[in-house]
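A quick aside before the break. I want you to see a complete sequence-to-structure record at least once, exactly as it would be stored in a machine-readable document. Don't worry about memorizing anything.
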Amino acid sequence: MKKKFLSNLLLVLILNVVIKPLYILGIDAEILKITEQNDPGSYGTYFSLLSLSFIFNIILDLGVNSFNTRNIAQNNQLLEKHFSRIFSLKLILCLLYIIVLISVGFIFDFSSLEMKWLAVIGFNQILIALILFIRSNLSALLLFKKDSILSIIDRLILILFCGYFLWAKKTNEIVTVEFFILSQTLAYLGTVIIGFILLIKYSKIPRIKWDTIFFSIIIKKSFPYALLIFLMSVYYYSDVIMVERLRGNIEVASYAHGYRFFMAFNMLGVLFAGLLLPIFSKLINEKKNIVPVTWLSFKLIYFFALIICVSIWNYKSQIINWRYEINGSSLVHSSETFGWLMVSFLAISCNYIFGTLLTANGSLKQLNVLAVFGIIINISLNLILIPIKGSEGAAFASAFTQFFILFFQVGLCFKFFNFSFKLNSFIQILLFTVFFTTIIFVLEKYFNIVWNDKLLISLFTGILLGLSLKLISWKQFYQLLKTSKS
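That is the input. The structure line, written in tokens, reads:
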């Protein structure tokens, strides 16, 4: 089992590191560039609607996938018995989701075009929810390779389909936001069909089954977690919606320029959280010491996140210019927004460690209260800063909110797990932070080298420095992987 897990983890890492960043920075970012050149503000409108759809995404799940994965993993024979019931519940949640989404669209007084886009985007989110449901069953049946491959099929379809119109065709006039939205529908629908074909071998074709007691048990058990996800989604995605409402869709495009890169890098934290949740849950359940794994995980993710954050901050203007071919005040504005998003990335990466630990501990009440304060701070700062600074103000508000959340999550971990102050670890982190930022400053100021070479030097310097200070250890990282299935 351990060998199977490690080989699957390697496959997941390769697929996520190659396919998903290629889609985000190759396809999505290219469509952003083209559509904003041909129809300024159109991608901003799409991005705002997409963020709105994310806020209510929890309606599509309500913790059902987590329940299903745990239940089927422990009792494989229940797949056929529960598959139709859970599938029926998912369909009910999908209907509720689209009703809520369209209702919000009417409340916001969207135009007919925006309502049409919102409906299709909502349908796409439903397809994604079905994909995740299928994957939860494959994962529970320990069909890791099928699950891993299914996780990137939609992105692969989009890379091939959209890539043809972006680069193989002599003209890209067909490339519009609406083309992009419908392309996603095609990719998600194809993935759902492939997923059901993979899963149908292990279960019968699902039928609609109404089971009130079964539905209520699942929803009742998962409600605190679902509430946490909803609250977190509000302060994660409300900034984009507020930028659109207060400053217009063109300003949202400035936010999206840097956000594409942020999303690509953010997969590092998502992968860490997915790996750590079962590790933390197991250690807490067995009443074992959680501190060593927590600090090791924190040092690892802080190491990678700081290197990325500082390196990108120095060359944010060059990166935005290289990817989107914008200049002048637009470049300055987008790059400053990008910079603050990368600062936010540093805090969010660390939040994945401590937030996952608190989730594994079942500290959902405290996390929900903290999320409410995060919403209040984020929305308040956005109302003040967006009218003045636009997307740059929203990015700063996001960074401030994430560091606020991080500070209190660390405090809660010290309270619940009796963390002791580790002087050696603190000195390692402090020395790495000071030395690395100093080296990058000297490299930027005193060496006359092209920016992309400096960026590569920064990344390699950070890795070598982390190894020399023993902030990271490949042996420890391997031990962390083994812990998850030991």
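Two observations worth writing down. Residues 223-486 form one domain. The chain has two domains: 1-210, 223-486. We'll return to this after the break.
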